[in-house]
Amino acid sequence: MITLNNKISCRSLWIFGALLVSLFSFSAAAKNVAKDQSAEGILRHCGTEHPSREEAELQEQYFNSMRQKFAHGDEYSQQLIPATVNVYFHVITDSAGNGALTQAEINNQMNVLNSGFSGTAFSFNLVSTTTTANNNWYRVTPGSGAEFSMKSSLRVGGAADLNIYVANIGSGLLGWATFPSSYPSNPVNDGVVILTGSLPGGSASPYNEGDTLVHEVGHWIGLYHTFQGGCSNPGDFVSDTPAEASPAFGCPVGRDSCPGSAGVDPIFNYMDYTDDSCMFQFTAGQNTRASQQSSFYRGL
To answer: Which pTM does this prediction carry?
Structure first.
């Protein structure tokens, strides 16, 4: 999307800065991963590690300093060149074959992914699918030995390649992902993990229309939750997503959890926690942010 001068110097500074940022300990399970009960009694729970406000601002300062140093004038913020992401789909089953998916089911999920990102700079091309029977990986959780073993064995490609792992994940999660800025410090961990039942037609109603993957891929290309930072600036670092104090569940039209800020809560946004049937939107600002983050950190 963006061509940078002095590529070797840029890459060296990028890796050094990203490694420095990664020294801050993210504690999403304790601080920033929200969960609640939907009307149907199913949890919307994303396990993606989100930084604290202070950590996020430090990351943003580093990113802004690097793009100002190496970008050509306003090119960095204005040029949104379409990017096609190669996708590697990894299906995890148990030894009895539970969790197996047909190619048609995977294709349906890919269609939902591309539909969710239609109108943005991103499209997704399925390159290959693997199926692996492993009882430990089948109930994988974030940060576990099972996650490390699974990704070490199955992950392919580089920073620009999206590896998706589908399993009957534990801890009440629908999925989790890594941010672009995390790649230099832990490339093996890069990718997205989602619950098998969240695929279109799956068992995780009301989160079974495939939008969990859209949400998690949003993180993978650099987007925070819409409720990141609550009602305080800079929130999710996107100017056209209204401030939101906490995640929204169900589809509470007109909800306004930050009455002192402009606009009602962005409940239709893919980066909130509403039901799949309520999600259908990325904003222009999110598109710009994701394009910048993915170009700089992933080379897309």
So the answer is: 0.84
